[in-house]
Every structure is written in structure tokens, then in C-alpha cells.
Backbone:
């Protein structure tokens, strides 16, 4: 699990421990999500209507306050950076103040930073400076209320770009001051293309069904896709489907299918054994397993619709109890017992 969530340090450590060449250490310690982040608006994948509208701003060199909303790893921070680069050129960092609202919960610290930043005139012939406030939905409603004053106060010299996962957590008055852009999970074809492109530029040997596995795991989150690729590549430059599943805490569909079949045909003890093997082999936590089983349930063609609906309810119960702190062994055994009973021919 650690390796999946923190590729940077684990890759670095691994290279050091095995005393590989320094070249490996430097390439491996670089995050591919950063290295392959598009530098111009037109290189952003998917998000067609967003890219079109931002392209107009980029060519005019002028834009209003912006609000980017959408799920993780779909290009919001990328779009903000790329727009700043397109408008300000290489020296864009001089005209850009980046803040993360979840680090800077106190609005006072935001206000004083903005004030200081806005005091000097924009670098070059830029008409304004840009303040990028990431994770703006982490601000309390009170802080957002105060932010709208700041946005007005500095509107002459600064444009705000706010980014959030849930636009419903941003108060109306702020939304009405911004042009709102909605980012969607990326289509599978876009994820596949980008993974293949990054793999080629990193000189990896990767087979098509490994790219497909990454796409299935990522579910429209390109950050997750590239992180999964890099974690696997740290172990082996030749990447197949098995390696992807084993390094990403994800069970392949046939393993989940095998468990369901065992519940249906082999009885409780055999199914329970399969489940243990599956958890060990792929390094899954109980909640991962339930979520992945749920995603695969609807594809199981040996189950009829009413059975799938009943099983969904069972899984929802077990998931809730696991999240509330129920014992993993007991809860997963209970799930297996229920499935065996439900599926008994
Ligand atoms: N639409 C995209 N086109 C190209 N690359 C992308 C796109 N979306 C994400 N990426 C890749 O994934 C990485 C993470 O994306 P980004 O930082 O833009 O996500 P985000 O939408 O800001 O997510 P979060 O809500 O978690 O902040 C980027 O560095 C880039 O490599
Ligand atoms: Mg972001």
C-alpha cells in the first residue's frame, strides 16, 4: 500500500538500497506525473470544451476569475499552470502565486500573502497577476465569505483561479464571480493514449493488456494511471498485466470472478480460502476488496438481476461495518457466508 501511495520516496529508496547507478536514482526519483504534465493548454487531454474556452483566453492573454471543479487527476492544476504559461511565457512563476487552501486555512494568511503579492506590478507587460488557490473547497464558509471581498479588492491587478473537487462546497457569491469550468473523468481512450505515450518516452516495454489494466484501475484519473505505471516500472522495465495488478493493490477481474464462482459452486470453506489468497496476493484491504467486487458484480453473467441487487445490499452493509471499524476477518467471512447462501443453486 505504501508503495502505491508514495512512489517518490519508495522508488528512491529502492534504487539507493540496491546501489544502482546514479542515473537510475535521478530518473526514478522524478515523478512522471510532473515530468509529463502538459505545459500548454492545447496539450491537455480530453476536457474538450474546457480546452477550447481556455485556448481563447490564452490567445487573448486575458481572462476573468476562474473556478475549476472536478474529480482528482483530471487536469485542473495542470490547466491552471498551462494557462499561466501560455499567457506569461517562460517567466510565468513571477506572476503566479500558488496557494493550497487546505494548508492555509486561516484566511488572514491568505489575505496577507495576496496583499504582498499584489503590491508589486506584474512582471513584463502582463496586464495582471494570477493567484491560484488549490483545493478551495477546504475553506470554511466563513473564510469563503471573506475571500469574496479579497477577490473584489484586488480584481484590478489580480485574477483568481480556484480549484476544487466539489463545486457545491463553494458558496454562490464566489461561483457568481467566476467563469466555472467542469472537468470530467478522462475517457479510457485518452488514458490509454497518454499511458502509452509516457511508457514510450520512458523506454518501457509494455504490452497492450497492461495498458488496459492501468486504464481499468485509473477509472478516468490520469494521475492514478501514471503513478501506477511508474510504481510497476520501478520493479521491472518490461511491464505485463500481472505486474500492474500485483503492484497496484487491485485484483484482476478473473480473480474476483473466481471468488464469486467459488461462492456459487464450491461452498463456504473453499470460497473463504480463495478470498484469503486473493487478499494476500494483491495486497488488498477489506474495503478495497468490497469496492472492487462491487465494481465487477454487474459484469458477472452467471448472476441474474435480482441476485445482483440482493448482493449489492449485502456488500453495502459489509462496507459500512468495515468503515465503522468492524473486524475485517469477521466481516469478510460474513460476506462470504451470505454470498454462498444467496448463490446456492
Ligand atoms: N487532462 C489531462 N491531460 C494530460 N495530463 C493530465 C490530465 N489530467 C491529469 N494529467 C496528469 O495527471 C497529473 C495530475 O493532474 P492534475 O494535477 O492536473 O490533477 P487535478 O485535477 O488538479 O487533481 P486534484 O483534484 O487531485 O488536485 C498531471 O501532472 C498530469 O501528468
Ligand atoms: Mg490539483
Residues:
Amino acid at each position: 500500500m505504501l508503495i502505491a501511495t508514495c512512489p517518490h520516496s519508495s522508488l528512491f529508496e529502492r534504487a539507493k538500497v540496491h546501489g544502482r547507478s546514479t542515473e537510475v536514482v535521478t530518473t526514478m526519483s522524478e515523478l512522471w506525473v510532473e515530468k509529463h504534465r502538459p505545459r500548454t493548454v492545447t496539450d491537455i487531454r480530453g476536457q474538450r470544451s474546457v480546452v477550447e474556452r481556455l485556448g481563447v483566453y490564452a490567445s487573448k492573454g486575458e481572462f476573468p476569475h476562474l473556478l475549476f471543479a472536478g474529480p482528482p487527476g483530471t487536469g485542473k492544476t495542470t490547466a491552471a499552470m498551462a494557462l499561466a504559461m501560455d499567457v506569461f511565457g517562460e517567466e510565468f512563476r513571477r506572476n503566479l502565486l500558488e496557494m493550497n487552501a487546505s494548508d492555509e486555512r486561516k484566511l488572514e494568511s491568505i489575505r496577507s500573502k495576496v496583499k504582498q503579492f499584489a503590491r508589486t506590478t506584474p512582471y513584463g507587460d502582463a496586464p495582471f497577476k494570477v493567484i491560484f488557490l488549490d483545493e478551495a473547497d477546504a475553506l470554511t464558509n466563513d473564510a469563503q465569505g471573506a475571500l469574496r471581498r479579497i477577490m473584489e479588492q484586488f480584481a484590478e491587478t489580480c485574477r483568481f483561479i480556484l480549484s476544487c473537487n466539489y463545486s457545491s462546497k463553494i458558496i454562490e457569491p464566489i461561483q457568481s464571480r467566476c467563469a466555472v469550468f467542469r472537468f470530467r473523468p478522462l475517457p479510457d481512450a485518452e488514458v490509454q493514449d497518454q499511458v502509452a505515450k509516457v511508457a514510450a518516452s520512458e523506454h518501457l516495454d509494455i504490452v497492450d493488456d497492461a495498458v488496459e489494466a492501468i486504464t481499468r484501475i485509473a477509472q478516468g484519473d490520469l494521475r492514478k494511471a501514471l503513478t501506477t505505471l511508474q510504481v510497476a516500472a520501478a520493479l521491472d522495465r518490461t511491464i505485463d498485466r500481472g505486474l500492474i495488478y500485483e503492484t497496484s493493490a487491485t485484483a484482476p477481474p478473473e480473480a474476483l470472478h473466481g471468488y464469486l464462482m467459488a461462492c456459487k459452486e464450491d461452498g463456504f470453506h473453499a470460497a473463504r480460502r480463495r478470498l484469503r489468497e486473493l487478499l494476500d496476493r494483491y495486497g488488498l484491504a477489506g474495503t478495497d476488496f468490497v469496492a472492487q467486487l462491487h465494481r465487477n458484480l454487474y459484469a458477472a453473467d452467471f448472476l441474474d438481476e435480482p441476485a445482483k441487487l440482493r448482493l449489492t445490499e449485502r456488500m453495502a452493509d459489509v462496507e459500512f461495518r468495515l468503515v465503522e471499524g468492524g473486524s475485517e476477518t469477521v466481516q469478510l467471512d460474513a460476506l462470504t457466508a451470505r454470498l454462498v447462501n444467496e448463490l446456492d443453486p
The first strand starts at residue 66 and ends at 69. The mean pLDDT is 88. The pocket of adenosine-5'-triphosphate (ligand 1) is lined by residues 33-34, 36-38, 44-47, 72-78, 163, 165, 186, 194, 222-223, 226 (CB under 6 Å).
